[in-house]
Design brief:
Elements (H helix, E strand, L loop, with lengths): L20 H12 L1 H4 L5 E5 L13 H12 L4 E5 L12 H10 L4 H4 L14 E5 L7 E5 H4 L3 E4 L7
Parallel strand pairs: 1-2, 1-5
Antiparallel strand pairs: 3-4
Length: 160
């Protein structure tokens, strides 16, 4: 049986008085069918990039809150997550990573969801998962992402 092709939804960033960015986000969320995908008690990872200290290339926390609220409406338990970085910066371990996330506005009081770094304190906590890949039979997945009941990828666009 052939693999099902993924569906990608897109909304441009133009906004006006009749249709703002929150309206566009709500339309995208409706198309994903969140109420049909998640159940009460499901642990749902919202994978995003919290940004490095001093940069601004990340999805704003107020938009993340909108996604969190939609997931919570299903009774599921969303959490914000990313993995630690291999390069030097403010996201190389979970303590600095969470501190950076909070400084960039990803506090529970803003987003309504806790921050959990998916690959542990030092970025070494993962599980081997079998895949039907062309080049790999198994891949290492961050433990807290592998253990979640669902995943929503909140991807930011960087054109590089």
């Amino acid at each position: 049986m052939p693999d099902k092709k993924p569906i990608v939804y897109f909304a441009d960033l133009r906004a006006g008085q009749k249709r703002n960015l929150f309206d566009k986000l709500d339309t995208l969320l409706e198309k994903t069918g969140i109420p049909d995908r998640f159940r009460k008690g499901h642990l749902i990872a919202l994978k995003l990039h919290f940004g490095e200290k001093g940069n601004s290339s990340y999805i704003r926390p107020v938009f993340v809150r909108r996604v969190v609220d939609r997931v919570k409406e299903t009774g599921a338990l969303p959490f914000l997550t990313d993995t630690n970085t291999l390069y030097t910066g403010t996201r190389g371990n979970s303590v600095s990573h969470i501190k950076t996330a909070i400084e960039n506005g990803f506090a529970y009081s803003v987003t309504g969801a806790p921050v959990i770094i998916a690959d542990g304190l030092r970025g070494e906590d993962g599980v081997r998962v079998k895949v039907r890949g062309k080049h790999c039979e198994t891949v290492n997945i961050a433990r807290e992402i592998a253990g979640a009941n669902g995943l929503i990828a909140l991807t930011h666009f960087k054109s590089h």
